[in-house]
peptidyl-tRNA hydrolase
Amino acid sequence: MSFLSNIEPSHLILGFAAGVLVTLACQNKVAYARSRFNSGGNSANHAVSGRDYVKMVLVVRKDLGMRPGKIAAQCSHAAVGCYRSAQRTKSRHLALWEMHGQPKIVVMVVRNDLGMGKGKIAAQCAHAAVGCVEKAYKKDSPFLNNWMRQGQPKIVVKCDKPGEEALQELAMKAKKMGVTNVIIHDAGHTQVASGTATVLGLGPATNNQLDAISGHLKLL
């Protein structure tokens, strides 16, 4: 069985849709790959979900008898070609591919002006964490599964300004950057009035994204 026949159809579809599949195979294998791709429908309608991986696939001609060093050099050429092509077309998948290896984090920004007790803060942060995961899942965030596999790293910081407006400002900045965000409003059973904004949850997102939003805030 050939190498190409072992490739999952979803991987081929994703590779073509992302503009990062280079085919160095002989003609019959190229035709086979195209048939697998075409069977998946229009690439423009194929969205990358949070449960997919953005990959670069390099298919090498085995009939040429190239040595390992030659294969490595040719694959390097192909990889650079894919990258430049994706840059020219401003592929959304390229950005996801570049960020795939970066650690993913959830940051929780706590209002420090409410005088909440430790238990109350813990409960509100728990609400924020669940809210972030729920929202990320609904919008098929490409970072959710990666964050889960990394042990769900979280950072808790304190807001540097009093009032709900400070959380809203950070949330608006996150929204403009495409970062998942959720503001928790308390039910008002203990310590704070009903509807009080207590915590802003951010992510899962990359370190660079979250630093641009909340990197200036101090740990709680």
